[in-house]
Structures are given as C-alpha cells and as structure tokens.
UniProtKB/TrEMBL annotation:
Record-linked InterPro entries: METTL16/RlmF, SAM-dependent_MTases_sf
Domain of life: Archaea
Keyword Ubl conjugation: no
Keyword Hydrolase in annotation: no
Database matches in SUPFAM superfamilies: S-adenosyl-L-methionine-dependent methyltransferases
Species whose genome carries this gene: Thermococcus paralvinellae
GO MF, one annotated term: 23S rRNA (adenine(1618)-N(6))-methyltransferase activity
Any GO BP annotation: rRNA base methylation
Protein's recorded name: DUF890 domain-containing protein
One Pfam family, short name: Methyltransf_10
Protein keywords: Methyltransferase, Transferase
C-alpha cells in the first residue's frame, strides 16, 4: 500500500485545497488545509470518508494506521477507548483488518460525529457512549477482547489551544493516570493471550511510569517506536 499522498494528488480530490498552496507547498499551519489534506489522504489511501469536527483534534491518518499495524493481524475482536470525532482507528480496524470492533467515546459531540463517520463508511462498529467510565461499568462483564487499544489523553494538565481538555488531559504527574486506569480495568476484559496497546508520544517520564506501573500490575511490556511524519510515536503493547 502506498502511504501518504502528493499535494498534486490531494488537489485532484479536493480542488479547494488550491487556496492554501503557496510556492507549491501546502500551509499545514492552517486548520482548514489540514482537514482537507487529511480527508484526501484517508480517501485515496484507505478508501475511507471522514468528516472532522470543526474544533476537534486533527491527527495524521498514516500514524494511526502504523500504530494499528504494530499489534493487529486481522480478524481480532477489539475495543477502542476514545474514538475521537473521526473514529478513524475504529473504521480502519473494521474495514482494513476485518476486526469485530467495539468502541467508546465520552464527548457528546465527538460521539455524534464518530457515529456518522461509521455509518458513512458502512462498517460495523459497536459504538458506546461513556459517561466517565473507561471500561468497567460500561462494557458488560464477561465480554472479552483480543485487543484493547487507545490513543489516550496524556497531558498532565490542560494545554493551550491545540486540544480540548477531554482529548488532552490524562491526569497524574506525567499524564499517566488515564492510561493506568485503562490498563487496570482491561485485566478483566482480555481473552487469554490478549493485549492492550497504547499510542503515546515520545516522552520518557510518561513512557517509564506507564511501563513500570503496567509491570507491577503483571503485564509484560513491549515498546515499538515509530516515526510518523516528523514525530516519534510509541506503541506500548501489554500482554499478561
Ligand atoms: C487523544 S484523543 C484520541 C482520539 C482518536 N482516537 C485519535 O486517535 O485521534 C482521546 C479521546 O478520548 C476521549 N475520551 C476521554 N476520556 C474518555 C473516556 N473515559 N471514555 C471514552 N473516551 C474518552 C476524548 O474525548 C478524545 O476523543
């Protein structure tokens, strides 16, 4: 599969991108330009149609695919915590990896966007609205998954501008609290041999505390580092 998309090819899909091009370069600092370019990428590369929430986080789609590729083989029963408005990972897991997908989202508005994106792409995703729960009290007891994955909120406190608080704040000293609660609750929802995978940034204190606390819970941890555009990302994979 070809990963990425030339600007001239993106233009064929969304001619309105033209107004954000200067000297052959796309102005990625412009939010509308990023939205249009990402829509073109998901359409051309994955055959997926996404509508982005006007205020939500706009994430590079290829990084999400690479992350999924670090732990999915195809056909697994999976649970995603926090689809965001795009629901792109849940849709890719269902459409490209043939997974049976369950997914949750806490924000009312993102949930509605996620639902429409799932419907628009005609994939089966069981989308569940969280009211503050992560897994316990939300996913029926006895339900188990081969993989539970998430791009969790991971900032220690609200950041200026880029993300809304619900997308961003993981809590704890290094932003680890959300991830640790997810890991703890996952224990009762994994099939034998099942795993949890977290998409995390390249921040050593955060990675270290999540790894150490995960090990204390009884997980074995593997860290797969990858480059997405200019950024280093980590797929932390936890197995029992
Ligand atoms: C960093 S964003 C990731 C969004 C998307 N999955 C992605 O990869 O771009 C985290 C998402 O988790 C959602 N979220 C936060 N707390 C949650 C909870 N308790 N249950 C479900 N979703 C939650 C946020 O609203 C946000 O959409």
């Amino acid at each position: 599969m070809r990963m990425g998309l030339k600007i001239k090819d993106a233009l064929k899909i969304f001619p309105e991108l033209q107004k954000y091009i200067k000297n052959g370069k796309l102005d990625f600092s412009n939010r509308e330009a990023r939205i249009l370019y990402n829509k073109a990428v998901v359409k051309a590369v994955f055959g997926i149609e996404i509508e982005y929430h006007p205020k939500g986080l706009i994430t590079p789609p290829i990084s999400r695919y690479i992350f999924l590729k670090t732990f999915l083989r195809g056909g697994e029963k999976v649970l995603e915590i926090g689809t965001g408005h795009s629901a792109l990972m849940a849709i890719i897991a269902a459409k490209l990896f043939n997974c049976e997908v369950w997914a949750t989202e806490i924000s009312e508005e993102f949930f509605e966007y996620a639902k429409r994106n799932i419907e628009r792409n005609k994939v089966q995703v069981k989308l569940i609205k969280s009211r503050g729960e992560i897994i316990k009290g939300l996913i029926p007891e006895g339900e188990t998954f081969d993989v539970i994955f998430s791009a969790p909120p991971y900032y220690e406190k609200p950041t200026k501008g880029v993300l809304t608080a619900i997308e961003a704040v993981g809590g704890g000293k290094y932003g680890e609290e959300f991830s640790l609660r997810l890991l703890k609750e996952s224990m009762d929802y994994l099939t034998p041999g099942g795993k949890v995978s977290l998409f995390l940034p390249d921040k050593a204190p955060l990675l270290n505390v999540v790894t150490e606390e995960g090990e204390k819970m009884g997980y074995k941890v593997r860290d797969i580092k990858f480059k997405a555009g200019t950024r280093i990302r980590h797929s932390l994979i936890f197995t029992i």
